[in-house]
């Protein structure tokens, strides 16, 4: 699985499941970048074979509808869609 790690301020483990062509996914990444936060992401549509099966299994665990972006924080909370205000609540205010 090709997980990309972006360096920044650690506010917990933030994992994004995204599509390379998704406007809302790009907005979520841009928001995190502008905040200077550390996060990881995987472009699900770029995975193949066993890696795609594995990432889809993870995604379905958190979001059975498999919609994008799906954001998982600290392996505990899941947000579906571009919801920066809600993510800010979960990770703490600046």
Question: Would you give an account of this structure?
Answer:
The chain contains 3 helices and 5 strands, in the order ββαβαββα. The protein is of the alpha+beta class and 94 residues long. It has a 5-stranded mixed sheet, sandwiched between helices. Helix 1 links the parallel strand 2 and strand 3. It starts with a strand and ends with a helix.
What is the makeup of the main sheet? 5 strands, mixed
- From N to C, what is the helix and strand string? EEHEHEEH
How many strand units? 5
**Beta-strand percentage range:** 15-25%
* Broad shape: globular
Q: What percent of residues adopt helix (DSSP H or I)?
A: 25-40%
Strand order of the largest sheet: 1-3-2-4-5
In whole angstroms, the N-to-C terminal distance is 32 Å
pLDDT < 50 stretches: none
The total of helices stands at: 3
**Average pLDDT score:** 95
User: Radius of gyration in whole Å, from Cα?
Assistant: 12 Å
**Computed structural class:** alpha+beta
State the main characteristics.
single chain; 94 residues; alpha+beta; five-stranded mixed beta sheet; 37% helix; globular
Topology at a glance:
Layout: E1 4-6, E2 14-18, H1 23-35, E3 39-43, H2 49-62, E4 70-73, E5 77-80, H3 84-91
Parallel strand pairs: 2-3
Antiparallel strand pairs: 1-3, 2-4, 4-5
